[in-house]
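notes to self, project folder thing:

trying the whole complex as one job this time. last attempt i did each chain seperately and stitching them together was a nightmare. two parts in total, labels are on each line so i dont mix them up again. if this works i'll redo the older ones the same way
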Amino acid sequence: MPLSRLLIRNGRLIDPASGLDRTSDVLVEDGRIASLTPGLPANGAQTLDAAGLIVAPGFIDIHVHLREPGIEHAETIESGARAAAAGGFTSICCMPNSIPVNDNATVTSFIVERARRSAVVNVFPIGAITRDSAGEQLAEIGAMKEAGAVAVSDDGQPVMNSRVMRRAMEYAGSFGLTVIDHCEDLNLSAGGDIHEGATSTRLGLRGIPACSEEVMVARDILLSQATGARLHVAHISTRNSVAMVRQARAVGLPVTCETTPHHFCLSDQDLAPYDSNYKMKPPLRDPADRDSLLEAIADGVVDAIATDHAPHTGSIKMQEFENCPFGITGLETALGLTLEALVHSGRISLVQMVRLFTTGPAGVLGLDRGTLAPGAPADITIFSTDREWTFDVNQSQSKSKNTPFHLRRFRGGPVVTIVGGRVVWDHR
Amino acid sequence: MPSNLLGIEELGREQIQALLDRSRCYQAMLSQPVKKMDLLRGKTVVNLFFESSTRTRTSFEIAAKRLGADTVSISAQGSSLSKGESLVDTLNTLAAMRPDAIVIRHSASGAPHFLARFLPTAIINAGDGTHEHPTQALLDAVTILDHRPSLEGLRVAIIGDIAHSRVARSNIHLLSKFGVRLVLCGPAPLLPPELRLLAPCMELTSNIEQAVAGADVIMMLRVQLERQHETALPKNEYFQFYGLRLEHLRLARPDALVMHPGPINRGREIASEAADSPRSVILNQVENGVAVRMAVLEQVVCH
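result (full assembly):
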């Protein structure tokens, strides 16, 4: 059988893992990176001209919701993977809050199998910490790992019982799995709709106080210290949380964190009143919190940018604000927003940005991805830093349209997405 | 775009003044023996109340009828919302029958604003959750103006469950636009410091004596236990620290007015002696509600 070969020509190659940033060709053979050398001959390979574009390792989003099994009218593994590809992601990690919850190897295997058959990008399931994410009995973490789970989390139903969380960290840690926590004290946040502050007071909406996140970040850091387990703080959103993670890292604890484009691009002052496309958890915080995220990204406290892509159908987002579910889609707007808020604004370099989408998230979960080194799987994200485009939610690959970024204009975004050597998305 | 009345916050001082002036015209008319007019003859006003209400609902209905409009009143219990229809679908259904205005009260903050984005019909907010109750603030202003030449420079104390009060929010917006010095008073869990950001130069205190000292107007609010997830305070001692009693009235200006949007809970936030004292204008507020709602309906429907 002939080798399948793809030659990507004249792109600016950025591979933080190997410290590369130069114009070069990339040769892909049989799904793996074969060579990074300028001026390679085509020798019959399919060629792709990347002049003027950035060629980076495939982007990894470690926080998405795919809604399958159970809520397939909002998203499927197939449609979510397509949205990921269109957004420049080659690997996504899906949270366990499907119906049924991914709390055992059967569900994990179902997701892996569905992804193998239908997804154009790599899909790595995240298992639940507790059975049914009910916060009481530990889920079958070892068996889920064997079936393909890459981390554990109870995401939106965070473990309130600190003793259960301690045992989860000890147990998951012994399998080498990172524990991802959506840090929220559900008693402090009960009934809240948006960030507790000036905007919630003005709109008469119930508040989700910053401290509801911070007390759990503090708890989890202490438990990580006590157990030695790797803790990953999902969608960090407040300045005090950032300060605690920064301090934990300074003393060498295995604590990482991610932030989402909407949290570092928007604050509660940008919220369109009673528009549920601005309703998510954690909520858009105040401008000082957003600024602390921008700072933490710039100085390396934040490891990864993740979207928390949370599709919901129009009918359930089209209700009284307090009855609408939390969450917005994010896979297709992440790169445009990040370029705008972080790179074009001069806060971080392009290399730093690529790190936040590749080696950063891969490191958080210990995924063997995120580099263009010869021999690595040929997951490649080719993007532009200057192509002008407008995001139209009606053209979205996701089955859901809940985003505040409809008709937003961007400078730069994904162009070609390659997974395992195969072009799975091409915007040209 | 239909003309709506969603809140006081977005109104300018001139727009509010125009409504107040018009209300005072209707006030005079309502003291005539024949109170019915035909300004809105042939128009239809739907009153849609998803929360229980006696005074606001009756007041809107009487106001519409006095202007000659046909009225239909619907409560959530008898509507298709109890059959699982969404709020938007219910409202679209009603809008398809081409009423000239829909008056809505709803327990969700922003429900009228949400509907106004999708409906072709004019919407009047008759109270949304813990957000705004614009006609209440207008009628409160008219009531104060029955006893004072102007709002400018008055000291008004709003006392009680400020956090959950749509009446407080609408009054804060209205009174602060007219140069009133506002004092907000309540137990700390019901008095979030962010309230200061609603209007400039407000005083916040948890001491009722301090709040009523030198006040021209004392507005009492009900403790909205139904809007609290858990008891934010020990309710049995509420009256001891935040209930308005005659001794407090002695600290206020001698001609101070006592107001309450109702329904009042005697012995909870206000003593009977205070509610029934000659200073109390609680029933005048109710009376003025009709004139204010006539002015609002006229403005919205005849826009």
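what i see at first glance: The radius of gyration of chain A is 21 Å.
need to look closer tmrw
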